Amino acid sequence: MTVAVTIDQVGKNFGSGAPALSNVSLEVKPSELVALLGPSGSGKTTLLRIVAGLEQPSHGRVLFDGQDALSVPVRRRGIGFVFQNYALFRHMTVAENVAFGLRSRPRAERPSEAEISKRVADLLALVQLEAFGGRFPAQLSGGQRQRVALARALAIEPKVLLLDEPFGALDALVRKELRKWLRELHDRTGHTTLFVTHDQEEALELADRVVVMGRGKIEQVGSPDDVYDRPETAAVFGFMGESSRIEVEVKDGVAIAGSTAIAAATQPVPDGPALLYVRPHDVSLGLPGTPGLRGAVRAFRRHGAIRRVEVEVGSALFEADIAPTVRVPVGEAVAVRLDRARLFPPTGPGVDCRPPPPQQPGDYAI
Ligand code: ADP
Ligand code: MG
């Protein structure tokens, strides 16, 4: 059983201060896995709690398959919810935890003990914890506990699965494993799923679609490729991964930093101030005299598997990722190529850039 979820113009005010949500609208298709991605405080949990029925919106509607869901009591809404902090019952075994939702149904709707046992065994197999039914939560690792929490959420055969940073408290390696595991699980079970995270990588790797939130609003909705490669706003670009942010002045479609032309817009952009965003892996360095902007190395340092270099071009400072075997002394002249850059005027959508036309001395003198 899988349903479409419609969030229609939902707003939430908690009283004083800015609204936690303003006019959020979103269509989640049956069996879709949608990630709500945004910084802390952007309203992700509030939205999830409204869909679950744990919170009432100040205005707006929530529909399941076109039917009003807000008037349906929480217990009847058919929601499986997993929180960041494993809310397992400590005094119950794993099997009792998973069975809890079924055992607490009114007698008329409660499956028989034999059916419950069968269902619990199936679910423990699904989350690969067959042998753990008799253990208590304290005897499990964090990752195992979250898998139990998921099995418990699935036990009631929910229409919708809501996951609020379910892997947030786990260490990086376990998170990565569980991410893959959850995607595979979703492909098999096909529950309509809303997954909250503030981790871009997690959202990009897991989700069919990503909803980027900021300050109670949706900034952009799209496929992982859309939001990563074609951010509509500077906020989304900045949030989706590491980047250099350069204040520029646009003149005839050319972005100028100081008095140096650094990029040209591929679509019309108004003259005036704008922001240019570039990711470190989209900047390449060459020997002086090879194609590119004339730059100088300001700093370099080890950065995981690669080496990260700071290069200055005009008044702009870019970060570039290079192979760790390459040495680039501070002060060295280099050719800087922006393989991919995006320009954001103060209003209107971002546009892709290409290299600027050759610059004559005095072209953009200030
Ligand atoms: P996120 O999950 O994206 O971190 P939240 O939905 O938890 O964001 O919070 C969004 C905003 O709403 C924040 O400014 C938060 O302080 C506020 N907020 C959340 N819950 C409550 C509440 N029960 N009472 C008052 N303010 C709240
Ligand atoms: Mg939250």
TrEMBL record:
<dbReference type="InterPro" id="IPR017871">
    <property type="entry name" value="ABC_transporter-like_CS"/>
</dbReference>
<keyword id="KW-0547">Nucleotide-binding</keyword>
<dbReference type="InterPro" id="IPR003439">
    <property type="entry name" value="ABC_transporter-like_ATP-bd"/>
</dbReference>
<feature type="region of interest" description="Disordered">
    <location>
        <begin position="345"/>
        <end position="366"/>
    </location>
</feature>
<dbReference type="GO" id="GO:0043190">
    <property type="term" value="C:ATP-binding cassette (ABC) transporter complex"/>
</dbReference>
<dbReference type="Pfam" id="PF00005">
    <property type="entry name" value="ABC_tran"/>
</dbReference>
<dbReference type="InterPro" id="IPR008995">
    <property type="entry name" value="Mo/tungstate-bd_C_term_dom"/>
</dbReference>
<dbReference type="GO" id="GO:0016887">
    <property type="term" value="F:ATP hydrolysis activity"/>
</dbReference>
<comment type="similarity">
    <text>Belongs to the ABC transporter superfamily.</text>
</comment>
<dbReference type="InterPro" id="IPR005666">
    <property type="entry name" value="Sulph_transpt1"/>
</dbReference>
<keyword id="KW-0067">ATP-binding</keyword>
<protein>
    <submittedName>
        <fullName>Vitamin B12 import ATP-binding protein BtuD</fullName>
        <ecNumber>3.6.3.33</ecNumber>
    </submittedName>
</protein>
<dbReference type="InterPro" id="IPR027417">
    <property type="entry name" value="P-loop_NTPase"/>
</dbReference>
<dbReference type="GO" id="GO:0015419">
    <property type="term" value="F:ABC-type sulfate transporter activity"/>
</dbReference>
<dbReference type="InterPro" id="IPR050093">
    <property type="entry name" value="ABC_SmlMolc_Importer"/>
</dbReference>
<dbReference type="GO" id="GO:0005524">
    <property type="term" value="F:ATP binding"/>
</dbReference>
<feature type="domain" description="ABC transporter">
    <location>
        <begin position="5"/>
        <end position="240"/>
    </location>
</feature>
<keyword id="KW-0378">Hydrolase</keyword>
<dbReference type="GO" id="GO:0015697">
    <property type="term" value="P:quaternary ammonium group transport"/>
</dbReference>
<keyword id="KW-0813">Transport</keyword>
<keyword id="KW-0764">Sulfate transport</keyword>
<keyword id="KW-1278">Translocase</keyword>
<dbReference type="InterPro" id="IPR003593">
    <property type="entry name" value="AAA+_ATPase"/>
</dbReference>
